Amino acid sequence: MNKSYYVTTPIYYVNDAPHIGHAYTTLACDALARFKRLDGYDVHFLTGTDEHGQKVEKSAEAAGIDPQEFTNKVSQNFRDLADFMSFTHSDFIRTTEERHKKACQDIWHRLEASGDIYLGSYAGWYAVRDEAFYGEDELKKGPDGTKIASTGAPVEWVEEPSYFFRLSNWGERLLAFYDENPDFILPKTRRNEVISFVKGGLMDLSISRTTFNWGVSVPGDDQHIMYVWLDALTNYMTAVGFPDTEADLYKKFWPADLHMVGKDILRFHAVYWPAFVLSAGLPTPKRVFAHGWWTNEGEKISKSLGNVIDPIELVNSYGLDQVRYFLLREVPFGNDGDFSRRAIVGRMNSDLANDYGNLAQRVLSMVHKNCDGVLPEPGLFSDADQVLLSAAKDALANVRAKMDVQAFHEALEAVWVVIRQSNGYVDAQAPWKLKKEDPARMNTVLYTLAETIRHLAILTQPFMPDASARILDQLSVPEDSRSFAAIENGKMLVAGAEMPKPEGVFPRYVEDECDS
Ligand code: ME8
Known about the structure:
The chain is an alpha/beta fold and 516 residues long. It has helices spanning 20-38, 54-63, 67-84, 98-113, 171-180, 188-199, 228-233, 235-238, 248-253, 266-279, 311-318, 320-330, 341-370, 383-403, 408-429, 431-437, 439-460, 465-474, 485-488, and strands at 4-13, 42-50, 91-94, 117-127, 132-134, 139-141, 147-149, 156-165, 185-186, 205-206, 208-209, 217-218, 221-226, 258-262, 288-291, 294-296, 299-300, 337-339. Strand 4 and strand 5 form a beta hairpin. The two termini are 48 Å apart. The site of ligand ME8 has 18 residues, from strand 1, helix 1, helix 7 and strand 14.
């Protein structure tokens, strides 16, 4: 196998319990990882936790426990969530692991060797919540009159000795890099924001702190610990074996194909990270995609508002495939989105139960009842049959083109075009009438539909793995014939195959249970 694909999620801070926002980013990567595997790629899918820095140290202090013990506990919550959501990550990295310390120290040496690190002192604003330095011009007045960052995070004045990274030297080279790699930052609107930020001039970046201890020591100067973002970003290389650039994983998967992030942390990934990697003389990642922000019934999600959406509760209420489908279908990926119970129930009942579920259920039930549970032999395909069969076959290319730019909502829409077309075909062909009038034609129609549903279920696997597998089981498609190669090899369903009694895969959500 020679096609490889490396996708990463942000590593999440362990200061808090995981919520829907974290589940969303990892879900998007999971759908992509599953898609690429089905498309014949060897995939490395990384997620994990960001465990150093002042924010985590403060949370541990507040919890009254030692930071390592604290991070062990909270990191496990993220791992449990990933398991609960059946994510298919290849590795779960923790920045407190030994392998990561080695990688951080190595990258530091490389930046130093490039002449990009110098010792100075930092006097300025710092927001612990964002773990970010802010210029005076980036601050505004908060409700109580104190200064806050544009993100709303409180800031504090910091004065301390610090090592700096000569980011100011990298502006032109970054602009040239964005120019040469027009798809490095997606969506395009975000790319424009980053470019204008860089054009506005870059200041050198403080990359070490001395006023707390919870982090990786600066090599050769253990008075300093590395800035948590330099530490955190390096995780993407640690996980593929860096600093051993001869490691199999590194050779196979670096540079990463995609860093998936929320829009809040784009600057770190699209400005600082490529500057560090270029300065270290290493190949740059291929893409950073910044998705939008979820709100809850129109309100910002926050602990203080008490409206944090727990993904576990959501899955327990609506089902895992349903939640996966909703999150990836409801909002154009990249845009902000509002979560509402009414919207998820709407999607479950219309797209899943009425469109997809009903199609599979009525076709498979007819095969079961009218053809003795055996897939019938088709006769000659009519024009209408051929139109539907080729729409089903073409859907893969359409979905692939959308997945290549992380347009999950459009990938799903491309599948739904064929689902709706299939339902129109069922109505027009009325196979239930053909049983008496023209059973041979009924067989051809049911075969055409079963073959179309096979394509649909193969394509929906990355989004709704369980439901798709159940549909494929009901069509008696063998496990080893469920990848995209099974669409492209031109082999159709084998007539005469026994089909088990069908069961509904997408139940309707009963309205009076809806608590919206
Ligand atoms: O920033 N809507 O970690 P973090 C959508 N450790 N996505 C959301 C969201 C919301 N309301 N809330 C959070 C960090 N996210 C750093 C990252 S990477 C080298 C270091 C998601 O725990 C989104 O992906 O604050 C966002 O970028 C991420 O969680 C922030 O997670």
